[in-house]
Each structure stands twice: as structure tokens, then as C-alpha cells.
């Protein structure tokens, strides 16, 4: 497979987000676009990212081309990427070639890992509460709460979304609503569930790739975060609830 991206910083942010959750991912090239998926070692988080063909400057793939890569190596290759850089990827039988052309041209040859097409978990859930908000708003809220405790509670009441953390210094709560302009949409019933802060905060990096995120949860249900990407692409993050 071979593809050249439009926004180098956006793709780098996606890989960095995944790298904070898991050591490796499977990249599946399809005619309609690129699918990147993985499960963290503790099996708390599952990620499924779809980047459609129209998102790329150039895109070539067979019916199904699959490679597995070590995220640390990809992230190190993209460490100093700029939004205006020309960034392309190409796979051979045993390598992924990353070409980065900006102030000067750099080419990285990364070994592929042995792997097979992941068995995507069948996740069919009805979420009692859903809300849409700007990814920047969500990221800022998580940044405020990140150092307050090791778990974050999501709760909904009267169409409002609240994120709260109990820590050594007390309780911190952020309320988001359509009335305040911090939610774009909200619907559903009262719900409450807690999730590991490290997992949830890891998604804050998606603000460089996505403008809008949909938050879905329910009492003792996984948290689903769908980050909208251009050309109807998406990044789905499922995070298992913490036992209460």
C-alpha cells in the first residue's frame, strides 16, 4: 500500500494518541480507505480508526493489505513533523517506508512485525446518554482534571454532561451544557460511570486531528468516544468502565 497525507500533523497526532494506549497497531489497507486498530495490553481500551481514501493526496491499496507496526518507531519518525510537511507512507514485504519532506527530506525504514488481521470485538451497545462537543473543549476539560485523580466520572442530568474527579485535594467538577455553549448536542437519560483517567486523557491529543467528538456512555457501560475526521472518517475509542 502507498499513501500521501494532506495534513501531516493530523496523522502524526493519531499515531501519538494510539501510542499512548498500546505498543503496536494493525494497519489495514482497503480500496475505500485505511483502517487502524488495536487493543491495549490490559484489554481496557479498543481503538478503531477509519481514514477514507478521499482524506489523502494519493492513495493506493489492493483489496486488503495488512501490516503490523511498532508505534514507538512510527512516533519517533514523526517527532518533528510540521503541518505543512509532505508526508507519505509505503509498505514493502518487510518494511514500512516513511518519507517526510519539509525543511529537508527524511526517509525512515521501519521493520514490520508479524501479525494477522485483528478480530474486531463486536460492540453493539445502546448508550443512554450521548453528547457532541468541540474536541478542543473536551481536551481542555481533561487537561484541567488530569492531575486531580486516577479516575474520571462521567455523569448526565437534564441534558448536561459533567466530568468529575475525586482526589487527595478534594473533588473537582466540570459541567458542560448546550445552554453554556460547551455542548453542541445532548440527548438521553441520567447516567453515571467512571473510567481510568490515563486512558481517557490519552485521547486529548486527538484535538490536532478532529474538530468534533461524540461522547457516549451509560452506567457500567464502556465509554465510547467518536472523534470525527475529514471525509466522514472517524476515530472510535472504547474504554471499559472501572468497577464501583
Automatic annotation (TrEMBL):
Gene: pcn
Segments crossing the lipid bilayer: none
Entry keyword set: DNA replication, DNA-binding
Designated name of the protein: DNA polymerase sliding clamp
Role of this protein: Sliding clamp subunit that acts as a moving platform for DNA processing. Responsible for tethering the catalytic subunit of DNA polymerase and other proteins to DNA during high-speed replication.
Domain of life: Archaea
InterPro entries cross-referenced by the UniProt entry: DNA_clamp_sf, Pr_cel_nuc_antig, Pr_cel_nuc_antig_C, Pr_cel_nuc_antig_CS
Proliferating cell nuclear antigen PCNA C-terminal domain segment(s): 132-241
Family label: Belongs to the PCNA family.
Quaternary organization: Homotrimer. The subunits circularize to form a toroid; DNA passes through its center. Replication factor C (RFC) is required to load the toroid on the DNA.
Gene Ontology molecular function: any one: DNA binding
Organism of derivation: Metallosphaera tengchongensis
One BP annotation, GO: regulation of DNA replication
Amino acid at each position: 500500500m502507498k499513501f500521501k497525507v494532506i495534513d501531516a500533523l493530523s496523522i502524526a497526532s493519531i499515531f501519538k494518541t494510539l501510542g499512548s494506549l498500546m505498543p503496536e497497531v494493525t494497519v489495514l489497507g482497503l480500496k475505500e480507505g485505511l483502517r487502524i486498530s488495536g487493543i491495549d495490553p490490559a484489554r481496557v481500551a479498543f481503538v478503531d480508526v477509519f481514514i477514507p481514501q478521499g482524506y489523502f493526496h494519493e492513495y493506493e491499496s489492493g483489496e486488503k493489505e495488512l501490516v503490523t507496526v511498532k508505534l514507538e518507531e512510527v512516533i519517533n519518525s514523526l517527532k518533528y513533523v510540521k503541518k505543512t510537511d509532505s508526508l507519505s507512507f509505503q509498505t514493502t514485504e518487510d518494511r514500512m517506508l516513511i518519507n517526510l519532506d519539509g525543511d529537508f527530506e527524511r526517509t525512515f525504514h521501519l521493520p514490520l512485525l508479524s501479525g494477522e488481521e485483528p478480530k474486531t470485538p463486536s460492540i453493539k451497545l445502546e448508550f443512554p446518554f450521548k453528547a457532541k462537543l468541540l474536541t478542543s473543549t473536551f481536551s481542555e476539560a481533561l487537561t484541567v482534571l488530569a492531575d486531580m485523580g486516577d479516575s474520571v466520572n462521567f455523569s448526565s442530568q437534564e441534558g448536561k454532561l459533567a466530568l468529575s474527579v475525586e482526589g487527595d485535594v478534594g473533588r473537582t467538577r466540570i459541567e458542560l451544557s448546550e445552554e453554556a455553549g460547551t455542548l453542541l448536542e445532548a440527548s438521553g437519560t441520567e447516567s453515571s460511570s467512571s473510567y481510568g483517567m490515563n486512558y481517557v486523557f490519552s485521547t486529548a491529543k486527538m484535538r490536532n486531528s478532529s474538530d468534533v467528538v461524540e461522547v457516549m456512555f451509560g452506567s457500567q457501560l464502556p465509554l465510547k468516544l467518536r472523534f470525527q475526521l475529514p471525509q466522514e472518517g472517524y476515530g472510535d475509542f472504547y474504554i471499559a468502565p472501572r468497577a464501583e
